[in-house]
Amino acid sequence: TYSILSLDGGGIRGLITAQCLSYFEKYAFEYSTEMGYKFPTYSGRPGIVAMKDLFDMAAGTSTGSIIAAGFGYPDFRGSTSPMYFAEDVIEIYSKKGDLIFSKNEGASVFFQVSFMAAFILAWGFLFYWIGKD
Predict the structure, then answer these.
(1) What angle do CA 117, 122, 21 make, to 5 degrees?
(2) What is the distance between the alpha carbons of residues 63 and 78, in angstroms, rounded to a whole number?
(3) I need a surface site. Which of 2, 25, 53, 60 has the fewest CB within 10 A?
(4) What is the DSSP string of 71-106?
(5) Where is this motif: GXGXXG (predicted)?
(6) Which residues, other chains included, contact 107 with Cβ-Cβ below 8 Å and sequence gap of 6+?
(7) Which segments of 1-133 are extended strands (E)?
(8) Which residue has the higher pLDDT, 114 or 38?
């Protein structure tokens, strides 16, 4: 089977999506441990399962695409770990949400971030699939 994580848009309300995904990462780890499934563990990230290990593809609309790009962006420091987990997305949205989703400059900043996220997502998945054996 092929599994797809689909994330909805909604601006700063993506923080709610990220919070739900944070609980999902923790619950997936607890459940998989209880059931005897083995998922990769990542340095500095005990007790969670990465979304890339649960889903074959992640996609989203608007803020959902930013979150999906974060989960698909690989850590290039010599590991197979994704660069961002749900807790990282929560931190980014909490600290930078006012800047990203500003009403004064709204469209321009949001579209810049969206374009960058789409670019990161595209290249992240490309490098992920090239490196996958």
Answers:
(1) 55
(2) 28
(3) 2
(4) HH-B-TTTSS-BS--HHHHHHHHHHHHHHHT-TTTH
(5) 9-14
(6) none
(7) 4-7, 57-60
(8) 38
**Tokens matching residue 7:** 């994330």
The pLDDT of residue 103: 64
Q: Is 50 exposed, middle or buried (0-12, 13-18, 19+ CB in 10 A)?
A: buried
User: What's the gap between Cα 12 and its chain centre?
Assistant: 15
Q: What is the mean pLDDT of residues 24-38?
A: 90
The vertex-39 CA angle with 34 and 44, nearest 5°, equals 105
Residue located via tokens 């092929």: 2
Token couple for 54: 């649960």
